[in-house]
């Protein structure tokens, strides 16, 4: 693929900037070959992904090097796209929003600076992966548990900043961030919260600091580059109790969520339940062609075949209670009684106690097994996420389920849906699986996404996160008071990043120079 250039930047100017970056990080850490560039493409791109091809990558080893690179980027007018480990699969991976941006790869900054067992937190650099942190906790017998996303190949920092989630009681990862160190778009280094006071030990302990709180401003944002992050970790519980049940009909999810959401809100259930449909079970273990080779979405008879073969319902629900054993037993009875109002089917129960092997505990153990699902369609597989946020009600969930399923099937795709109940909301993650090299299919993915976004917005709901290709569409759906939020974002962007060098277009927020001609 030919090297793309950032808007208004000549090849000579880019090369001078890359030479200057090499003066900071060493020439081995400025990556400019075709192979290097292609390494940073979105591995699940719709088609070639060349519209998101970076012109190069630069990999600093410290916050000071990040500052120096950012200052040079301002001098030379070169856009940077920071990534931690670049495994943001389904949302764009390591690729930049704009053609020709230089990827700022923070993967070399992977020190675990502190794990505090007594106070339950860690302080990490952005390149620290879930596997790194898990191995560290295990090797040092530290009784703190991680919360991990389904695919845990990425970084602890990147995932929390993007507001990824897992199903442990600490599963709302962004909510466990406590204190950031950030390089601003001008190159200045700041620490947020109590970290703004030199040597204050409560940096990773008290989230708000003094005056306005800034941690939220650096999430899903292009206002800063996070070089250190404090994150709370969960103390290992005395025991866990797992409850799983298969629900046979699509619409059973309505009553199930109406029972689960109040229990989640009252704290009987402290984690976000893991609820996925039959396609999650099937795509993890087989390919579509094993079941169906006809046109269009799989018919209901094939779905029933899948359910029977794997012994799964339309929905598989997994819940887990964490805490003192006796408390878990009481809470389990409350949940069982709630479900008994609707079904005779019992929960399958598993129990784990401290000191038993961790595998069966429900601790956050990183895995990449769920990536298997991208092979569903065959060929070079990919998936893209569509994830609207709903109120915590069965009625709202059913309404969105019916809408999304109809749209997805009408476009010829099999429906993958899952629900996660947060404290006051439901997140409905949908995934579309495709073969990247099937142009017709790729075209249909683009179309189905646009329809899902606009029809869901018409129903009053928005997404919590979005792929590079639809960041603008989702941003546009947040329209209150003639897009007042966009104007606020732009005001901040212009103030903090006057030269518009940091992640132009991320989450639909464009620097001044790009507005109106979005690359
Ligand atoms: P992961 O490897 O954890 O899955 P990525 O490194 O792909 O995550 O990051 C996902 C997105 O989050 C990036 O595209 C970028 O917009 C943002 N991001 C990641 N790390 C940082 C960081 N350290 N500072 C600012 N933004 C970041």
Description:
With 519 residues, the protein is of the alpha+beta class. Helix content is 31%, strand content 18%. The chain has four domains: 11-105, 2-Layer Sandwich (Uridine Diphospho-n-acetylenolpyruvylglucosamine Reductase, domain 2), CATH 3.30.43.10; 112-232, Uridine Diphospho-n-acetylenolpyruvylglucosamine Reductase, domain 3, CATH 3.30.465; 239-465, Vanillyl-alcohol Oxidase, Chain A, domain 3; 472-508, Orthogonal Bundle (Vanillyl-alcohol Oxidase, Chain A, domain 4). The strands form four sheets. Strands 12, 13, 14, 15, 16, 17, 18 and 19 form an eight-stranded antiparallel beta sheet that branches. The chain has a five-stranded antiparallel beta sheet with strand order 5-6-10-8-9. A four-stranded mixed beta sheet has the order 1-2-4-3. Strand 8 (177-183) and strand 9 form a beta hairpin. The model has no long low-confidence stretch (mean pLDDT 96).
Summarize the structure.
The chain has 519 residues and is of the alpha+beta class.
Mean pLDDT: 96
Distance between the termini: 18 Å
Morphology:
globular
Q: CATH topology of the largest domain, which one?
A: Vanillyl-alcohol Oxidase, Chain A, domain 3
Q: Number of helical segments? A: 13
Task: Give the names of the bound compounds.
Answer: adenosine-5'-diphosphate
Number of strands: 19
Structural class of the secondary elements? alpha+beta
Helix content: 25-40%
What's the CATH C level of the largest domain? Alpha Beta
- What oligomeric arrangement do these chains adopt? single chain
